[in-house]
Design a protein that fits this description.
The complex is a heterodimer of chains A (688) and B (257). Chain A has 25 helices and 7 strands. The radius of gyration of chain A is 28 Å and the shape is globular. Chain A has helices spanning 39-47, 52-75, 80-100, 106-127, 135-150, 168-180, 184-211, 214-224, 239-258, 265-282, 284-301, 304-319, 325-348, 357-373, 377-397, 417-445, 449-465, 474-502, 508-528, 551-562, 573-582, 595-600, 606-614, 654-660, 679-682; strands at residues 541-543, 546-548, 568-570, 586-588, 619-623, 665-669, 673-677. Chain A is mainly alpha-helical and 688 residues long. Chain B has 257 residues and is an alpha+beta fold. Chain B is 42% helix and 27% strand. In chain B, the strands form 3 sheets. In chain B, strands 6-5-8-9 form a 4-stranded antiparallel sheet, with no helix packed on it. A 3-stranded antiparallel sheet of chain B has the order 3-4-7, with no helix packed on it. Classes of the chains: A mainly alpha (688), B alpha+beta (257). The interface between A and B is large, with 119 and 108 residues. β6 (665-669) of chain A pairs antiparallel with β3 of chain B.
């Protein structure tokens, strides 16, 4: 990155321009670029608590309110949702007001950000406090079990094969289980908590380096927490929850390393290499995102965009007949020579350490090696999802398919009107605030290539919102949010500080900013997580001093005790995951193995028998409840009091009857669940 | 005035103590859990940070970030490194990996930066009482919130159920089966169990009383003389004696075990 002694209108070097509207406190001086920490700053660091302890106490009370809401939800009592939202607002609004304010010291902001992030993590922990209940968590739980039992990596995961090829998360968790004697659940909770801490600190550090403003840094963390997947999805026990924080740490270290005042660039390079390696081993999308950001950053530093713009301009001139083809070629050669020459000059001038290209190439090569030699099936896995998304968008544009209706689930459940208002209102706030941030970027930070990359991410986020209307692209849009929000949060934080500056004399400004930030946060929750999963569900029932588990769990416990582990068992999506993790069976689920067809077929005909024999199915678990095919809701007691959007119906009796008439062993019956031994059918002797 | 790296001595002591605990007292304990958490999520990163960065060159928050971030990275990369060793990923190898990193980094730290710069070691000033009380209260209330969240639900928003199972046991000529009833009902339930061979009643157990989470099982030897094709266990609730509540079936082909 070429650093110039360019000054802004205030005569301050652009690279070190203070944020608008900020009043640097004493502790601000010991910012991220002040490597040498003074004793005074150290004392400040410990002394400057400000309102943080009071806000922490308020947020703890808010957690208690949410816990009460969870209890009411499990009891089927009214008012649970109200308590949930009250708790969320009680957490967010005070932190938003304080972080948007100009008064707190750097240390107070940092502590507020850390406490906020961890308090929100506790909200997720309280959502499923007795065990993993999210669909992806079962996959990684199984991978940990595999490592613990086989003492090796890359075991078999029949439900999500790709997850076993990225063993970073299960490795760390398995080490904690082995050395700490913890259960997989608690080890997983701690690992993700550590990752969450890294996310907050790294994001704060990165934003502070870029903006030179602790205020922008604190707001960046707050706004990032508003991304639709922060509260639940990226707090689950899943590989992205670990990898994405490490990506942000890589970017923060990389940017820190570029600073000319950094005394230990080699050490920082080593640190970056180690963390890049960890990211590549841990999660595919995070590693691709990391490479993409580093690549974009490198290209912007190298001013490659100017080459592209000039190239496009020359091509247009040639197309319009203003210049000849040979002139255009000469221009292209000259432009290439100039580009290479400029890069050489940068190296000669010892400015290469200011260039992220080295880290980019390291990350790219490592990612490609992993993709080619370890996880080549990732191409098909990711390609299928992205391919479907692209096709869906084109079909939507060509009017070949109808668009997805917002706020309506696949089961037809329509979210209440107030959720529409919150969700759409949060988008409006973002759209309104973003130009302020982009203007701030252009005015003060356009010389910083990484800030430009973040601005591009912010713009891309808005573009991705359009994909939510395409049925097969919705998931892609949703999953992109936790990545693109890194840029969006930073740019919006710049915008918020600008807005705040202009309303500094009035109470309306802070109030509007607080309400706006809280609204955006609530909108993120509405967009990111289904209404009937935001509160805890009945995962255990107490009768006297005895605790009862749901049918899925006890069926798996029975299976492990009576049949033993390692059998090939067909099941629906939720029961399969429970069998995989708690009975250690080789569970087959879903369309990939034709299990959905086998379960839903009205009779056992040739196709069904072929499926049984092809996959050598030993047992099949049949659940009569329709909720069992829902891999997010199928792990609980079915509530007897109605829950909005919760399917409590049963399948047709044919689902069971075809096995009843097949003269095979029905070895287990718990009312809704029956387990059949497929031995005779598997060996090619279909009876009756 | 420079001070010695007491912190690194403490790190080394913790590594050694956790090793002793893992080998001499392998059972579960709070102490082992705490040391295990430190060994996986704290000590390697702390030691690496001490080896790589000059003391006092990073703020407390950056040190915390490096400590946790590098520890996580060490764990992730450690998994891959141990995968390539013949011993694989087991408690001992995990300990050796993490302890080696920590001890090695501490030694490098001792050599590169043998002392804290002036005042660094004693830079921590006491936290004032009010923030301390508020933070302690916040942590306590958060803990209570998690405790409340973990409370099982009352039984009025769920439905109880009963498991009935029958599996064949390995035996001689006579077929032997084990029948098991597990109650997850929300109250005392009286059951009647009937065993039917080839459609004819074989055994009838008229009253089995089970409380919530109670268990009943029986090993039954089926007579050879009947040479049954099918054995069925049928469970009734005595409060609804005419309705089959649960049933399981085995096809008793002697060639199948």
């Amino acid at each position: 990155m070429s650093v110039r002694k360019r000054t802004d209108l205030m005569g301050i070097p652009a690279e070190r321009a203070p944020r608008a509207g900020a009043r640097p406190s004493k502790t601000d001086a010991a910012g991220p670029l002040a490597l040498g920490r003074t004793q005074a700053s150290s004392r400040d660091e410990l002394a400057a608590w400000g309102l943080m302890p009071a806000l922490a106490a308020v947020s703890a009370l808010a957690l208690l309110v949410i816990a009460a809401g969870n209890y009411l939800a499990r009891a089927g009592a009214p008012g649970a949702e109200l308590l949930f939202w009250l708790g969320i607002v009680l957490i967010i609004a005070p932190f938003a007001a304080r972080l948007a304010s100009e008064r707190p010291s750097r240390q107070e902001r940092l502590r507020l950000a850390v406490w906020l992030g961890m308090a929100l993590y506790v909200v997720k922990v309280m959502n499923s406090p007795n065990g993993f209940t999210y669909a992806d968590e079962f996959m990684h739980w199984h991978n940990v079990n595999q490592i613990l039992s086989t003492q090796t990596l890359f075991g078999q995961n029949l439900v999500l094969p790709i997850s076993a090829l990225y063993p970073g998360l299960p490795s760390v968790t398995a080490s904690l289980v082995s050395l700490g004697g913890l259960s997989v659940f608690w080890a997983g909770i701690l690992v993700i908590a550590a990752a969450r801490l890294v996310m907050i600190l790294a994001l704060f550090w990165l934003a502070e380096q870029l903006s030179q403003s602790p205020r922008v840094a604190g707001l960046t963390v707050l706004i990032y927490a508003a991304n639709p997947n922060f509260l639940f999805f990226d707090a689950q026990f899943s590989y992205e929850s670990l990898a994405l924080p490490l990506v942000v740490l890589v970017l923060a270290v990389a940017h820190y390393r570029l600073n000319p005042k950094t005394r230990q660039p080699v050490v920082l390079t080593l640190v970056a290499f180690v963390i890049i390696g960890a990211v590549v081993i841990t999660h595919h999308l995070s590693s691709y995102f990391m490479v993409a950001v580093l690549l974009a950053w490198t290209l912007l530093v190298a001013r490659f965009h100017l080459v592209v713009i000039n190239g496009a301009r020359t091509t247009l001139r040639w197309y319009a007949g203003e210049i000849t083809g040979s002139a255009a070629w000469r221009w292209a050669l000259q432009a290439t020579r100039n580009f290479v020459h400029r890069r050489e000059q940068t190296r000669v001038n010892h400015e290469s350490s200011r260039d992220p290209s080295g880290l980019m190439f390291f990350a790219l090569i490592l990612t490609l090696i992993w993709l080619a030699f370890v996880a080549s099936s990732t191409v098909g896995y990711v390609g299928t999802v992205l391919g479907r998304a692209v096709v869906s968008v084109f079909r939507l544009i060509a009017a070949e398919e109808t668009g997805r209706t917002l706020f309506v689930s696949t089961s037809g459940y329509v979210a209440p009107v107030w959720e529409h208002i919150i969700g759409l209102g949060s988008i409006v706030i973002i759209v309104v605030a973003l130009p302020f941030g982009l203007v701030a970027v252009w005015r003060r930070y356009r010389r910083n290539a990484l800030v430009l990359v973040l601005a591009l991410m912010a713009i891309a986020y808005l573009g991705m919102l359009g994909l939510r209307f395409a049925p097969a692209a919705w998931e892609t849009s949703n999953r992109a949010s936790e990545f693109l929000y890194i840029g969006l949060a930073f740019v919006l934080a710049l915008g918020v500080t600008d807005i705040r500056l202009r309303k500094a004399a009035s109470w309306i400004g802070p109030a509007a900013v607080t309400i706006g930030l809280t609204w955006v946060f609530c909108g993120g929750i509405v967009a990111g997580w289904p209404e009937n999963l935001r509160l805890a569900r009945v995962d255990q029932v107490a009768v006297g001093d005895r605790i009862l588990q749901p049918q899925e769990t006890t069926a798996a416990v029975w299976m492990l005790a009576n049949i033993g582990p390692g059998h090939v068992v067909a099941a629906d999506d939720s029961n399969g995951r429970v069998l995989l993790t708690q009975a250690h069976e080789d569970a087959l689920v879903g369309r990939n193995y034709s299990i959905d067809d086998l379960l839903s077929a009205p009779s056992l005909d040739h196709y069904e028998l072929y499926t049984i024999q092809r996959f050598q199915l030993e047992y099949i678990l049949v659940d009569q409840r329709r909720i069992s095919s829902d891999n997010m809701r199928g792990y609980f007691f079915v509530p007897t009091r109605p829950v909005a959007g919760w399917d409590v119906g049963l399948y047709d009796l044919d689902r069971l009857a075809k096995f009843e008439s097949a003269a095979i062993d029905r070895i287990f019956d718990s009312g809704d669940i029956a387990i059949y031994n497929l031995e005779t059918l598997r060996s090619g002797q279909p009876a009756n | 005035m420079a001070s010695r790296r007491i912190d690194l001595f403490i790190v080394l002591a913790l590594v050694a103590f956790s090793g002793l605990l893992i080998w001499l007292w392998p059972g579960e304990s709070v102490l082992r859990s705490v040391l295990g958490i430190l060994l996986v999520l704290g000590l390697p990163g702390y030691a690496l940070e001490a080896a790589l960065f000059e003391p006092g060159s990073l703020t407390t928050s950056l040190r915390l970030l490096m400590m946790v971030g590098l520890s996580l990275a060490a764990g992730v990369i450690g998994g891959l490194a141990l995968y390539w060793t013949p011993l694989g990923l087991q408690t001992g190898t995990w300990y050796v990996w993490l302890a080696s990193i920590t001890v090695g980094a501490c030694l490098v730290g001792f050599v590169r930066f043998p002392a804290h710069p002036s005042g660094q070691a004693a830079s921590s000033s006491p936290i004032k009482l009010r923030p301390l009380v508020l933070l302690s209260a916040a942590l306590l209330v958060s803990g209570i919130a998690v405790f409340v969240a973990r409370l099982p639900a009352p039984p009025d928003n769920a439905q109880g159920y009963t498991q009935l199972s029958m599996v064949r046991l390995l035996g001689g000529i006579q077929p032997v089966v084990r029948i098991e009833i597990n109650s997850s009902e929300f109250g005392l339930v009286h059951y009647r169990l009937q065993i039917v061979l080839n459609g004819r009643p074989f055994t009838d157990i008229p009253d089995i009383l089970l409380a919530p989470s109670d268990h009943w099982d029986r090993v039954v030897e089926l007579p050879v003389s009947i040479t049954p094709d099918t054995a069925e266990a049928v469970l009734y609730r005595l409060d609804d004696p005419s309705t089959v509540y649960r049933h399981v079936t085995l096809q008793l082909d002697p060639s199948r075990k």
